[in-house]
Known about the structure:
Elements (H helix, E strand, L loop, with lengths): L5 H12 L38 H9 L4 H16 L4
Amino acid sequence: MNKTTDEQQRELRRLxxxxxxxxxxxxxxxxxxxxxxxxxxxxxxxxxxxxxxxDAELLDWFRAQGGKYQTHINTALHExxxxxxxxx
Length: 88
């Protein structure tokens, strides 16, 4: 990743200190129609690396499903938790 120069840092600080009213947004088109918007499109949940001991036959089954077996295990665990949460 590129480091910012001192000059860039000064410019960023100057811009951060500008009041909203002084920011010229005239060159940005206004978007009023959000009908095609997708909520959470760029959301990526935080993942944590762990070591998990799992029965060999379960691991074999998930691997046999093809694709990313760890993602399939994660999805199955999500579904299990959703089905076992206390109602609000």
